[in-house]
């Protein structure tokens, strides 16, 4: 063997390494590499298809994102719109729809209360947005409190104290709940509520249907307990008492700064009209149960649907009842005591009747008067000279209390008369101011004793108020608060906000 041949073999060895079987490591590496199988034009077609599919998928993803975003914006925008009392849908769509779907006005009332209660529970209730009252333009002083505005919601809308908080959210400074009676009572048989849409009026003969004072007290107490727990006072009797004693910095009834809760009390239908002592016990029973949770107690002696109730507006029986209520209110276990007001009828409008009521107010120590209530009269249709639609003419013959815009003009005059008489002070002081005329020489003149200072009585006005201009008129006539009921039924949940906006405009135009 020559060395030349050997050298050739040695030089050939490196090239032979790559022709040998791959190692295990190389097999693994090769196994992980992607395999491309060439089958005619299939590879190029797949690549082309993938390239075309990519923008389609991207486009579908973009469209889904846009649709989702748009839907979210619509839902959020719809939520803020529908839950805002300024939304016109409440007045021009919801109210007519309810009237169409629910011909029976009492059914509509029940569903309205139930809906507000449920919506409030889930934060979906209509509410006044934007801190409208923060400018202080409508602030007013009542019973030493600075109220956010002079608008209230009358009793009857929330008969069983189920929705005071949803009603406060609509913007009034005062909400009146009730009336409540000592024992539960069904009221009058149905149907007992009737609409007069052409007049934006109603006739009702509910008859003070009530679940009883004990039930209302339990509902109001639970509300205070929930507030105490939510605001860090705890869940025990001491926590409740601390809130009632004002440690939360809010009125103990409303639990809302700048607002007050009024609770209306009345007697049971079965209590004999001639038994004043029994009637007094009825009112005192209610006061002992609910007064602890009220800023204002309203003594209802003016419902036209409880036989004999309006007879209690005579001076003697009214004085006896009011004295009993005031004494009971002053004994409430709370640092601040509830104020007491009496609700009187617009039908008791003779000079003698008004004087007798004012005398009873002064002699009993009551803090104010709510003028008035529904009327047994049937006012002429508005506008003057108009005729009622044929469907509404039979409704006018129904028994019950009439409420609506027709009550407004008489209300303004009645408020002015009460304001004038109440501002004169108690007649006892006036009677003491006797001046003796000398009938002979050297007989000294008896000097008139100084009239004692007195605290003016507060007046609330209720009856036919539907606009900001009308609210302004009753306030100018001497009322401190303008209360609404039927106006809200026909105007929807945005009525209070609208009326306050109109009041601001009236004030700017002055």
UniProtKB/TrEMBL annotation:
Q: Which organism is it from?
A: Penicilliopsis zonata CBS 506.65
Localisation per UniProt entry: Membrane
Q: EC number(s)?
A: 1.3.5.2
What name goes with this protein? Dihydroorotate dehydrogenase (quinone), mitochondrial
Alphabetically sorted, this entry's keywords are: Flavoprotein, FMN, Membrane, Oxidoreductase
Which residue ranges traverse the bilayer? none
Q: Write out the similarity annotation.
A: Belongs to the dihydroorotate dehydrogenase family. Type 2 subfamily.
Annotated Gene Ontology MF terms?
dihydroorotate dehydrogenase (quinone) activity
Q: Which residues form the Dihydroorotate dehydrogenase catalytic domain?
A: 138-419, 460-505
Q: Name one GO biological process term.
A: 'de novo' UMP biosynthetic process
The record's listing under InterPro entries reads: Aldolase_TIM, DHO_dehydrogenase, Dihydroorotate_DH_2, Dihydroorotate_DH_cat, Dihydroorotate_DH_CS
Pathway annotation: Pyrimidine metabolism; UMP biosynthesis via de novo pathway; orotate from (S)-dihydroorotate (quinone route): step 1/1
Q: Which GO terms describe its cellular component?
A: mitochondrial inner membrane
Q: Which cofactor does it need?
A: FMN
Enumerate the catalysed reactions.
Answer: (S)-dihydroorotate + a quinone = orotate + a quinol
EC top class, as a word: oxidoreductase
The record's annotation in Pfam families points to: DHO_dh
What the entry lists under SUPFAM superfamilies is as follows: FMN-linked oxidoreductases
